[in-house]
Amino acid sequence: MVENNNSKTRRDITQFLFWVFSAFIASLLSGITLGGMLSPIFRRQKALSQQAELGGLDQFPDNVPVSKDVEILQQDGWSQVKQQKRFYVVKSGSSAVVFSPVCTHLGCQVEWDSKDQKFHCPCHGGLYSAAGQVVAGPPPRPLERIPAEVRENKIYIRPV
Amino acid sequence: MSMLRPIKDWFVSRTGVDQFWNHWMREEIPARVNWFYTLGSLALFLFSIQLLTGIVLSFYYAPTPQAAYASIQYLQRQVLFGSWTRAIHHWGASFMVVIVFLHMTRVFVYGSFKKPREVTWMTGIVLLLLMLGFGFTGYLLPWDQKAYWGTVVGTNIAGLAPGLGKYVKLFLLGGEQVGALTLSRFYAIHVILLPGLILTFIAIHLTLMRRHGITAPPRYQSNPERKEFYPYHAARDATMMVLILIALLALAWWRPAPLEAPADLNASGAEPKPEWYFLALYQSLKYFPGSLEIVGAVVIPTLVVLLLLVLPFLDRREERRLSARKPFAVAGSFFVLALAMLTFLGGRGGGMSAPQAGLLEMSGAYFFQEKCASCHALSKLENAPDDTWIVQHAKDKNVTLAASQKLSLRVGYSAAAYLRSRPPLALNPSELKGAGLFIVNACVGCHQLQGVGAITGPNLSHIGSKRDKAWLIEHTKDPESKVPGSKMPAFAYLSDQDLTALSDFLLRFK
Questions:
Q1: Complex prediction ipTM
Q2: In this predicted model, what pLDDT tens digit does every residue of B309-331 receive, in sequence order?
Q3: Rounded Cα distance, B373 and A45, in Å
Q4: Best A30, A48, A123 residue to mutate vs chain B (most B CBs within 10 Å)
Q5: Is A83 within 8 Å of B265 when comparing Cβ atoms?
Q6: Closest Cα to residue B458, out of B442, B438, B470, B444?
Q7: Which residues of chain A lie closer than 8 angstroms to B349, CB-CB?
Q8: DSSP 8-state symbol, A6
């Protein structure tokens, strides 16, 4: 077939259209799919913030971390579930500090060892003092303090 | 035969299967290929086994935190070959890692990645990473202790990467923490996204392999002799496949895939250990504490992957013999040695506490030994029946043995807990008996121990550092003799042997 100028332009246009359409389809579809998959980066789910009572001040000894499990309503994806959550309470006089037992290194659950007076992380050997400060091991930060208040001799927290 | 001939001819002419067969099976390959050249086919074979068993598993698996664990228990107990299938999938993953590693070693030693096969090698590295991705995402799916805590640590490691880390972690978790959204994404990644990607890259890898042909071992490099893949080398492939299949099926038959206790978000003392092929990474974390963490967690692994990817451009001389590539031979051996060392050290788990068995598991071990072991061999109970069944069975008057008629609810539940997880127990027989007595005498009705039990009485979690043996025995016999006004009932009916066992057990809790 002989190609004249006219059909050459046609060829250019159809070629151009083929690639433009392809790019259009690819960008649209990948945009939608990636958007869905990456959604958690752009849309954070609001955490439920429920107040929880940890118990009366007089339950806790002075200056010794004591673990306390409370049930907390949490948003887990599409459902709200009651989860047992553990906290450590250190009472001193009429005030109290509440620690999260989540190791600041990689998130394992620390445990108070009354024998050597430290929080031990079972995973990579992190140690914290009774005040939550890092004593040894890889943790980069002290244990997280959960905002707590004392009302009518009871300890309340509002964990997120 | 002659009657079928027209049908065969018709089919061949319509589908072109003969060309397909000739393309893949009649390929001319160097005559001097050896048994090491079966490793690639073996990797592909193992992958297809993963694909098949994975399809069966997905028939029964439910990817939600409420259902995942139970669905796997169901698979193991109710589905024909269910436990076997899961074990094949579990061990098949490890087989694949080993075979892929050996395949890479073969390609490295023979210098087969050199020009013009650079891209074939690079797609191989991509396949390696995809395979590790399968391992990582599959680990969470059983939603047991190991799975949950391993993923908590693993995703936190990903979060350490500078800049993007935070987003990678959010992408993996589907939110701020490991939960329902994490499980459904890991499932989708494991059964849809990764299989799609890996099949694509396998296709590319194989197409490139055919495009450039197979390399002869270096010392036959100049030998022009060639022969067809089928049947000579195909028979070698088939032999190896049969051998590895038998090994895999046998291993899976005798060693079922582990299933620990269901994920417990409050389990302190849960020590997450990754699958053995991630142990090297896990171990290297320990050498970089504090702000240097990211070196071990992100920088070194990334560098290793980059180095592997660009290897064909570093080691680029045409000479393929390893003896002529000394620096690379040394670097390669060093790399393998380091990998082996780190894996070994990571597996030994130095510097960390041993996993602790819970109270129920400890007492369950005692009850099992006392009440069940006369009829049931532990090794034959590969899959623990569920708790309700055990309790029913324990109370069943039709079970002829007198022993089983005496089993109470508590005994049943703790035996079930033990059978489910079978933790290693560092208790002597007396202490084990003590654990049983602790449960059967309802001590947990008033006392807390290891987070189990009521809080009416004092918490016994550290009783061993407060009291001695004599005190505990006296106190249990007659509480008021030691603590005037004590509300605890006297356990005077316990024998001296029982009292000793009970205090031996309690003294473990320091």
A1: 0.74
A2: 999 999 999 889 999 999 999 99
A3: 51
A4: A123
A5: yes
A6: B444
A7: none
A8: H
